[in-house]
Give the backbone structure.
Amino acid sequence: MQLHSITLRAMRMKMKSPFTTSFGTEWDRHFILVEIRDKDGRSGWGESVAMKEPLYNEETVATNWHMMKDFLIPLLFKNTVEHPDQVSQLFSHIRRNNMAKAALEGAMWDLFAKQQELPLSRALGGQRTAIEVGISLGIQDSVEKLLDLVAKYVEEGYRRIKIKIKPGWDVAVVEAVRRQFPDILLMADANSAYTLADSDHLARLDQYNLMMIEQPLSHDDIIDHSKLQKKLQTPICLDESIHSLEDARKAVELGSCRIINIKVGRVGGLTESKRIQAYCLSQGIGVWCGGMLEAGVGRAHNVAVTTLPGFTLPGDTAASSRYWEQDIIEPEVTVDKGLIQVPSAPGIGYCPVRRIIDEYTLYTETFRP
Ligand code: OSB
Ligand code: MG
């Protein structure tokens, strides 16, 4: 793949409504958009999901910019890549910084698929023509407000409802949602808000028939999660703790989870995501695609990866309109009866719109070999 240039854009997009988790509230989404051009004028697009502040993980928009500019982009220019599967190998001696790596790797995958005139889903080996999706609902000011939101999205057809929990907003909230919606697929995500000392409290959630409880304990733990899983009937799903296939293998071997949330950014890219889903499929571990409040480019990558066979559970990739007045792609991602139709155009299959992108761009820099 002959590269002509790489452009980074620092973006800010106002969210329709703030999103609150146990670690904080997002009002605006800050992220980096990556555009890699080849010599024939094609563009591959990637989106870094690192946030402005290091609250979900240690990466930020500024650290990602630094990693890409000073280490990762020079590696892409100095080496020839025949296939995007080689990119993660090329980056492997750089420790972590997975979201920075994934943003560049994702743009290389999009570019490759466009060069091959294949939809990204097919270039990855995915077969599905539609994917099932759920939605993630942040912590609200009141239970009534949450119940209204659940009703709205159940009505819209979302196949699974995830609610965020934290100490003080957990058992009673789950109980209220379950009472009003006895039959929906329901789960809770704690974003690491508890410790093993809360085991008995968390076990009270077993009575509400949750599909899973996501990342109840520390962001870097798999040991205590294996102890907690033994005390819970509800499957544990790991999010923050899993950064690679190796992490997934260790967590599965320890019995720390029965389900894994794959976020392409957190595991360093699409190639590593493919490997994790294949491993989980072989082990009977459920997998779904998580979200990081992505704009259209990241959303498109999530749609493509979810077509792989290991993604057996509905993910968090909601419609563009869930967060954005106006997304940066055309057409926008839409959800009908809880399904997203997988695009068949080459690459990510949605077209980034430069006029709209420019409106949200704070600053930009272009690099050439
Ligand atoms: O833990 O899955 C998470 C958003 C930001 C950071 C972490 C998480 C989330 C979500 C939202 O749950 C998923 C989405 O709608 O993109
Ligand atoms: Mg999560």
